[in-house]
Amino acid sequence: MSSGEPKNYDSNEPLTSTAAPLTDSTLTIRIIKSFPYRNVRNLILRDYDLKNKTGHDLFNDCMKHIQTDGAFRPFRTVKYDKMKIYTHAHGSKTVNLVINFNHDDDWIIDITDPNGKKLCDYDVENETEISLYNEEAYVEYKANPIEKW
After folding, report:
1. Residue 148 located in a structural domain
2. CA separation for the pair 23, 51 (Å, rounded)
3. Which string of b and e fits 2-18 if b means at least 16 CB within 10 Å?
4. Residue 101 counted as domain residue
5. Cα gap 109→71, rounded to integer Å
6. What is the pTM assigned to this prediction?
7. For residue 59, what is the domain's CATH number?
8. In whole angstroms, what separates CA 131 from the centre of its chain?
9. pLDDT at 121
């Protein structure tokens, strides 16, 4: 493209992660039933309030959705007990299609404390992807990450 041609994009356009206010964000929750079989279903939460909701609130909202939406019926047999950021909007993705093996210390979201940190305090922003899974199954899979399909 020569310097005289107009650009077909706006370099001043905001990123989608910052375009929506923290009180009106979209999250993708990656609900993981099985690590080796890569059995994952996405739950999209729209208009979610990252400024006032805690990890505990997010966990409860996800569990309520799993228990009431027929599409998640096969996922009801898993005891979910952990949430971790999979990727931030516009960030690099992991090569593992199921879960991010990195950041086991700093991307974990506390789901136990109802008065804990707000989601925005975990650097969760619009279009962040978060994994919901069973911690024991994760530890076992991480020790031997063999896919079975």
Report:
1. no
2. 6
3. eeeeeeeeeeeeeeebe
4. yes
5. 25
6. 0.83
7. 3.10.20.90
8. 5
9. 95
Q: Hey, what are 87's tokens?
A: 């990727």
Which amino acid, one-letter code, is at 63? M
pLDDT at 88: 76
CA distance 57 to 45: 13
Query: In terms of residue numbers, what domain contains 41?
Result: 21-143
Q: Cα–Cα distance between 38 and 6 in angstroms, integer?
A: 44
Across all residues in the chain, what is the average pLDDT? 86
6 domain-assigned: no
CA dist 34 and 40 (Å) reads 7
Rounded CA separation 95/78 (Å): 24
Judge whether 31 lies within some domain. yes
